[in-house]
Amino acid sequence: MRGEMDLTVDLYTESMGRIEGRVISGQKISSRFSPHLNVFNLITVRMVEKNTLTVTDVLTVSEFPFVRSIFSLYEHALSIFFLLRISTPQHVPDPVLWKYLVQSMSSGAIEIREVLKILGHDTVKAVCVQCKKTSLHYFEYEDGIFFCETCGSKQARDKVILIV
């Protein structure tokens, strides 16, 4: 049973891949988990499974201050984690992706093209699906296709991610 103040969090883990977890009373201002469950935090989390995965304890390992301090990096990282949320299946670990995410978030050198490559959408030999240009600016995540700047700007904004 889900309470009114419960929260569902999306976590990307080393050993289980992407998972969803329930945080009991997670929306309360006084929740002891709130500071730890901020976007981009590297955390150690303890969960129990009883019908659903429920967070029981959280400890922040790193807040990746470099990414948080530069708006363009923060915005770029948000796009990448949105892409991961919609394109990676739950409970499928990817050690290469995990290692890249932790290293790149630590250094601030996170690149959406590298994440796409790890996910099997390499931009090296890709072309715009409409005009065949090789200068790619957008990725349409539902169909896994690329667009150049001109063709991509004509696509619905909620369907494409800027990859430049």
Structural overview:
The chain is 28% helix and 28% strand. It has 164 residues and is of the alpha+beta class. Among the domains are: 7-62, OB fold (Dihydrolipoamide Acetyltransferase, E2P) (Beta Barrel), CATH 2.40.50.140; 121-164, no CATH class. The strands form 3 sheets. A 3-stranded antiparallel sheet has the order 6-5-7. A two-stranded antiparallel ribbon has the order 1-2. Strands 3-4 form a two-stranded antiparallel ribbon.
Task: List the main descriptive attributes of the protein structure presented here.
164 residues, alpha+beta, OB fold (Dihydrolipoamide Acetyltransferase, E2P), three-stranded antiparallel β-sheet, two-stranded antiparallel sheet, elongated
Summarize the structure.
The protein is of the alpha+beta class and 164 residues long.
Number of strands: 7
The percentage helix is 25-40%
CATH superfamily annotation of the domain at 7-62: Nucleic acid-binding proteins
Percentage of residues in strands: 25-35%
CATH architecture of the domain at 7-62: Beta Barrel
Overall shape: elongated
SSE arrangement, N to C: EEEEHHHHEEHE
What's the total helix number?
5
The CATH class of the domain at 7-62 is identified as Mainly Beta
Q: In order across it, which strands form the biggest sheet? A: 6-5-7
Main sheet attributes: strand count, strand direction, barrel closure: 3 strands, antiparallel
Structural class: alpha+beta
CATH topology heading of the domain at 7-62: OB fold (Dihydrolipoamide Acetyltransferase, E2P)
What's the pLDDT, averaged over the residues? 92
Q: Using only CA atoms, what is the Rg? A: 18 Å
Enumerate the spans where pLDDT stays under 50 for 5 or more consecutive residues: none
Termini separation comes to 43 Å
